Amino acid sequence: GAGVSQSPSNKVTEKGKDVELRCDPISGHTALYWYRQSLGQGLEFLIYFQGNSAPDKSGLPSDRFSAERTGGSVSTLTIQRTQQEDSAVYLCASSPDLRGSYGYTFGSGTRLTVV
Amino acid sequence: AQKITQTQPGMFVQEKEAVTLDCTYDTSDQSYGLFWYKQPSSGEMIFLIYQGSYDEQNATEGRYSLNFQKARKSANLVISASQLGDSAMYFCAMREPFYNQGGKLIFGQGTELSVKP
């Protein structure tokens, strides 16, 4: 696609429910990153993919968070048993490779509200 | 550890004037990249400009220029001829080496710029 697409753009969920956030990167971009931006905070790195592989999951805030990527394209970030502190904007970015010299293109984000 | 510091939480500038947004960084790596992103109220992160650590000339992209002072570890963004549409949050970011979390970006806390008519 022309840009990085994220869905849904907004999600309100009840505490304890599971949610799935989707990211569709730019076609051909092998590197994909998930970040979280909490209210009034900067951006916090969560996880990256090189192709379908996520070599290091240590950035995920808890074991309730998981992510996968299939076909070297679409990625899904899943949050199980959501808590109020999970409320944030979740941003996805893609890049042609891991060097990042060409820049990172961000999606518009998914605003998650846990009530 | 790598760190990005933006010391100006908020700034005001008169339309058509130039403004400088400060950014300092800390790294022990010789090879790194510095980025500036704009985040309007709509939420998307818009790439503005990139400076590689080995680039000898300051990067420029239209009205944006990056004042790169390597010895002082600063990478200030200069916006010339400010426009009302420049009102947004601006983030300075540094790229980790690719072997560290795939070259993730580390972000500063951001500077909220308001352009006055």
| Element string of chain B (H = helix, E = strand) | EEEEEEEEEEEE
Percent helix of chain B, as a range, is: under 10%
Helix and strand sequence of chain A: EEEEEEEEEE
Structural class, judged by helices and strands of chain B? mainly beta
Mean pLDDT of chain A: 92
The low-confidence runs of chain A, each spanning 5 or more residues with pLDDT under 50, are none
For the largest interface, the chains and their residue counts are: A-B, 29 and 25 residues
Number of helices of chain B: 0
pLDDT under 50 segments of chain B (min length 5)?
none
Number of strands of chain A: 10
Shape field of chain B: globular
**Multimer state:** heterodimer
Task: Give me the secondary-structure category of chain A.
Answer: mainly beta
Report the helical percentage of chain A: under 10%
Content of β-strand of chain A = over 45%
Q: What is the rounded Rg of chain B?
A: 14 Å
What would you call the shape of chain A? globular
Number of strands of chain B: 12
How would you characterize the largest beta sheet of chain A?
6 strands, mixed
Brief write-up:
Chain A is mainly β. Chain A has strands at residues 5-7, 10-13, 19-24, 31-37, 43-50, 65-69, 75-79, 88-95, 105-106, 110-114.
What does this structure look like?
The complex is a heterodimer of chains A (115) and B (117). Chain A contains no helices and ten strands. Chain A has strands at 5-7, 10-13, 19-24, 31-37, 43-50, 65-69, 75-79, 88-95, 105-106, 110-114. Chain A is 0% helix and 46% strand. With 115 residues, chain A is mainly beta. By secondary structure, chain B is an all-beta fold. Chain B is globular. The model of chain B has no long low-confidence stretch (mean pLDDT 93). Classes of the chains: A mainly beta (115), B mainly beta (117). The A-B interface holds A 31, 33, 35, 41-43, 45, 48-50, 55-56, 59, 89, 91, 93, 95, 98-101, 103-109, 111 and B 33, 35, 37, 42-47, 50, 52, 91, 93, 95, 98, 101-110.
